[in-house]
Amino acid sequence: GSPYQVTLNEHGQRKALLVLDGRRRWRCVREIPIDVGRKFHKMRWDRLPSLAQDVRKGDRVVVEVDAHEWARRNLLRQNGEEEEDSSDWTERVRSLRKLGASVELRHAGRRRSASQTEAPGAATSSEPKRREAMDRTPLQTLRDFLSFRNRTGAVSIDVDDAFERGKRVLEKVAGEDVAVPSTETVDLEIAEVTAKGFGPFRAEVVLPLERRGVVLLRGRSGKLKEMQEGGDFGNFQSNGAGKTSLAFAILWALTGSIDDRPSSNGKVTDIINDSSKFATVTLRGAINARPFVIARTKGKRKNDLAFLLDGRDRTGQTARDTQEAIAEALGFSPDGATSTSASPSQILSRTMFHGQHHGASGSGLLEASDARLKEELSLVAPLEVWRAAGART
């Protein structure tokens, strides 16, 4: 990965250069800390005092503010009863900005589970969470509820066992499977992706992929003219140039999501370049040999999604309708449900797209707990499939 943090999702990550010894089966014999570039910080407002000494010029600080606490303090301030630490807290934010750091205040929402994703058609993440909850399938809602109750320690249960029992109840009530897996094989070919105003790409950039086999993405941070004159796009200055963003633009075009990691308050407009009003990605390819074009645009107040398949315009009246048409063409059910509690973006991010965080230290599958490993496996295929396979070995 990059030797420095490039997104808010990397806040708190420690970067290091690992020295491996090939004579000892590539065991790590030395770890050299790397501390370069700007950093991202994310914490609750009451932990802000402990942050001041770690912030440097150019850093980005996201402070999570509890909505109820914020409202209470505002009420006290209006009544002239401001608490003693209120002025100190405000002064700390001001001092961080004087250092040259970017400080952003966000209302802290409830932590989303791994099976919750950005609702297609949502203009901003501040829209009511109930709209997202209304779009959950019964199985997804059940899985989220059980995982939340178990994670918070409210009850001690076997999530997998409870999920299977709950699934049988739902199937009995519905009179049929509440989520029918797709049996059709889907062959997805990517021919070209074009991005503009997306992530680090202010100007339009095109990535041709048709009939190219394995593609190695290389990049270099700097001015285009200087790179062209130098004739070398380099290896050592390629980190943070946007290689991952360009690759994951494909996932964003298909699903409206670029990351399946849980986040309590990430904004859907974070993918827009700082110097652009809109982020646009156009994806061209073929689904089962039928050519398709997907064009997705995101702005602060604009959300457009167009879908052409085999020469026919499959664009719906709303972005949500269009997203359902895309999901259906990719082999998912029209409402985005799968045979597991996972969404289409989570299935694709575990089969076609593998971000750095999937193998990152402390978060990779090889270091996962038994419960998390089962949860990850259940997102790809129902647990009974894994159990049946295990019984044969």
Short description:
With 393 residues, the chain is α+β, with helices and mostly antiparallel strands. It is built from eleven helices and eleven strands.
Low-confidence stretches: 110-128, 175-183, 232-236, 262-266
Number of domains: 3
What is the top-level CATH class of the largest domain?
Alpha Beta
Helical proportion, percent range: 25-40%
Mean pLDDT: 73
Domain Rad50/SbcC-type AAA: 193-297
Protein name: Rad50/SbcC-type AAA domain-containing protein
Region (Disordered): 107-136
Biased composition (Polar residues): 114-126
Please, could you describe this protein's structure?
- This is Rad50/SbcC-type AAA domain-containing protein.
- One of its GO terms (molecular function) is ATP hydrolysis activity.
- InterPro entries: P-loop_NTPase, Rad50/SbcC_AAA.
- It comes from Corethron hystrix.
- The chain is of the alpha+beta class and 393 residues long.
- The chain folds into 3 domains: 100 residues, no CATH class; 37 residues, no CATH class; 163 residues, Rossmann fold (3-Layer(aba) Sandwich).
- Helix content is 31%, strand content 19%.
- It has 11 helices and 11 strands.
- Strands 7-6-8-9-10-11 form a 6-stranded antiparallel β-sheet, covered by helices on one side. Strands 3-4-5 form a 3-stranded parallel β-sheet.
- Strand 1 and strand 2 form a beta hairpin.
- Helix 4 runs antiparallel to helix 5.
- About 10% of the residues have low confidence.
